[in-house]
Fold these 3 entries.
Entry 1:
Amino acid sequence: MNVATRFFGFAVAVALVAGVGWRVVKVGMADHLVAGDPHNALAWNPANPSALAAIAKKHLDDGEPAPARDIALTLLQREPANGDGFVVLSDWARTQGEAARTSEWSDIALRYAPQALAPRAWIANEDFVRGNYAAALDGIDKILRVCPRQYEQLFPAMLDFARTPEFADALATKLISGPTWKSGMVTALLSKATPDAMDRVLSTMQRQGALDSATTAQWIDRLAKVGAWGEAYARWVSATNGAHANRLSNVFNGGFESAPTNSGFDWRVGDSAGVVIERAAVSGATGSNAMSLTFLGRRSDSIPLHHWLLLSSGSYRLTFRATAHDLRSDRGVEWVVRCQQSGKELAASERLTGDFQWTSHEVDFEVPDADCQAQDLFLRNAGANGAGKVIRGSISFDDVAIGRTDVTNAPRAEPSH
């Protein structure tokens, strides 16, 4: 048994057994006393099954397995179908290391007390140890249906074990079936799993069409956060299902002919009180649409419009077209290319302000060999801090593209639509 298996066994068999709930059927004064004083409850009703079960459980908790077993047998003599009696016997056999008896009594306990957690936990653990991951996850599913709060113990252990490819595949299959805890587990994978474990589970789900666009976007963002930019790009391309394969370029959707998705390597448009950003039909645009920004005369410290890039080292030229109407600001707006890792600024276009019809603009820049695997293209308000950030008027952009310039006879970058 490897370390991961032992760890998971401990998590399931101990954490869940510690939190096992005992069924209490309240009948008369005896049942009223069971929870706090089961011995006194027996004085009112010597045959009270809940009191007998509670006393047996207390003996197990106190490290006294023999009286626990004897009381459980007494309980079953009086009520042969009492599930709590078999739950105690299952737990007693587990403490004695008697696997065969534990298995037998656990199966019987679940037949008469299907809500009992401890037998279910033991069976699930045994399935994990044997590598029966699908069966183990079925057991975990039943546990979480009965006691959803057990995710606090189970999710961390499952995330740790997801580093095992076989378990990751089984987990993906289970999540595809849509258990009640799917959303919570996917959230845990996105936030806490290792990149390899997260990728294996989610990629299997993606291939089966079981990931929605929001989850896919979070997955890509997590890959980018840990610096796996190439993998993030590959997953983003895969998520498009080839629909935009003929439009992939250094700046995707540079002509704004499709609505930005705010995810992956497409345009990301945020909210700001000082500017309205929208894809709109603008006279003179190359295609049907352009990206239009209307500034409301308020302070705009940042403009929430940017685009991730994945440029290899070398020489490039950023090109775009723009038109503005009564754009008034301290120093205008400019496009900037910056390294994601180091934050090093690679390029800043000329600053745009005032009134002008569609004009073409370009700026050359170099992507270094180190600390610049991915880049960010964003629009910046170049005004000084404070009042210098106040801006009003409108500007539209079209045909945003980036092409290489260090290839012999390289053509100029074509507009991307």
Entry 2:
Amino acid sequence: MRMPPFLKLLVLAVGMLSSAHAAESEPVVIDDPIYAHPQRLVEVESGRRLNIHCTGNGSPAVIIDAGLTEPTSSWGLVQPMVAAKTMVCSYDRAGVGFSDAGQRAGSSANIVDDLHRLLAAAAIKPPYVLVGHSYGGMNVRLFAHVYPSEVVGMVLVDPSHEDQREGYRKLDPEKRTSEQWDAYAVEPSLKLRRECVSAADSGFTPGTDIHKKCSFPQYPQLSAEIQAATARFQLRRGFQQAQLSEEENIFRASSEQVRAARRRFGDMPLVVLTASPPLPPKDPITPEKWAHRQARYQMWAGLHASLAASSLRGVQRVVPET
């Protein structure tokens, strides 16, 4: 199956960098100072702006939607490689990075609407190749369903799936009901996110337990300057609210939205990149727990295979050593 050159380059860029990061003892550093401040703030509605970072020239434009509350800097190694061949744009969703706080739920439908407004306001014309990592994978699929004439290809990088929550629940050794699974697997994280929003309202005190719980570990690939900028935006209420809202919606409203819109993509080029299977743990683990971990991976990889099968030109690639 022939893959368009721009899509092949993108897949190679993501795959090579992912594998390299798994194997390297000394990480490659993202030190472009542009990631330490807004790149381009574009108004998507009165008084509300989103940050977008576009590099390169050419068509189709590659549009990247990152994982849960991830900023543009998370693509700082991939974007330059793709920009050598065509235009590529990463952006910060509402409340994330340097974008203004959101005024509505962080659901896939609202994210797609924001992104479509952003591209129009920034004069980034279709056609687009959409790239979605994790939660972004659900968002770009919905975008392609809502605006099919504007999308000519997709790369999904370890994408979240609207059926994965139920898939994990069905593999639960404790056989929890849907309500029990939510209480066990979902609510504890949401409870913490609500506490983080309240703490942001009062102002975080560096070094406190709540500050540590609400601040995410920095990628070692980021320079000290970018890490400092990331630490600052993580303390904002808008970011903490975005984190809460995206987590609240991903396997509830967003999953329902994507599931309702789900249909085949015809012969649109589609590549699904899946992380390699789990390695045997270094610490001792019971055979039952190891079998459960492997079953979870097989379920997850199977959902990725089903996404690849939604296009006549769909391919799933398991990226080694990731």
Entry 3:
Amino acid sequence: MIIPEGSRFRSRWDLVALVLVGVSCLLVPYQVGFVHRPILLSSIGLYLIDAFFLADIALNFRTSYRTGGVEVSEPESVRGRYGGGMFGVDLLGSIPFDLLLLPWASVSVGGVSIVLWARVPRLLRVARMFLIFRRWEAQGRANLGVLRIAKLAAVATLFLHWTASAWFLMDHAAGFPPDSWAAVEGLVGETRGTQYVRSLYWAIVTMTAVGYGDITPRHNLEYGFAMAVMLLGASLWAYIIGNIAALVSSIDSARAVFRNRVDSVNQYLKNRKVPQELTRQVRDYHDYVWARYRGISAREALQDLPDSIRLDVLAHLAGDLTRHVPLFRECSRPLRDVLLMALQPRVFVPGSWVSHAGEAGAEIQFLTQGQLEVLSPEQHRVGVLREGDYFGDLSMLLNEKRTGSVRALTFSETFSLSERDFGAIRDTYPEFRDVLKRVSSERSDLSSDLLLEGVLL
């Protein structure tokens, strides 16, 4: 059985894998740099993590992949791609070689047990972290900016941790010469926590090029290591800051473009001496569109999509309509699809008029979000329309003018079906006439009450 790459199970598995990669890549360097000998509890934890990643290898041989926008799920292709790619790296990072060396755990190299040195290949799992982030970015599992910042934060954390571990290990392996930085700082014999904090402090100061000078290299080996960290750290830090700045800039850029467009509209309204109340409604509308859609209206988001994809998106957006509104529930699938493709999204701000009494019925409105109040010709409220309600069909079918008005109580969103599209669908699909006859007997209680009040929408 092939598991879809974008399935919920695979995503949750990848989340667990990401956490365990972090645990492995933090624990192993810490043990090598500061503990120097295997500890039972941490060893058991690592072996359990190894078991997970061995299972992950088996799962990767059964997980589909995407290329060129096409999901490949043929078993032979999946096995060939993974076997010729990440399999070797994953296997090398998951086999517990140190188990074979446990009988000789007391043997040390550079003051560190050979068992711990045999655990270093587990750091290759960091490649799995990058693959998971890349997969989530391609799938749009979360906000792209958030994912990229999380990846940069993970890279910076691992670099600092590994640098701190190597910085202290270097002096430990040399036996803490009197002129070493650790000996000068009086860290010989201190607790591991103190040793780690001082080492991490030096790594952060060096990477960020702050250079306070309170902890400095003392001999050639330390100078060489420090220079390498300065070059790599400065480059990595510049890369991280540059990417974060670009992400923030892109967010601000989208906001700036939207605000400039809104300012232009506001300036136009001001120059044309549009009433303040109407100007406020325009401003409220733009604020709503930014908060809900980040400045992209539903119409703009859907207009460039191919018909097949646009239809699926509309079916999702209008899901409650297709399930609860009789007009859609009674239709066959082809007729329902045609109706969905003809719908046009609309947004109304609180207090704005959706329709007026005396207008000819020119469209059917399906309410998907918010509340609309129905007013009598005397402007008395006679009802409230809520999500799933619709109106306009009776005045259109009877060719009568509306006798009631509709006004938005809250920010409201509707899908509208124009009279022209309605007529074209009715002429093209003979079954539509039968559907209209059936749904005429399924009017909601509110619609019936409105008719009794003499209100026709």
